[in-house]
Amino acid sequence: MSSNKQSLVPSAREALNKFKMEAASEVGVNLKQGYNGDLTSRQAGSIGGQMVKKMCPIHTASFARADRTAMGHVSTVCYEAALID
Question: How many folded domains does the chain comprise?
Answer without folding.
Answer: 1
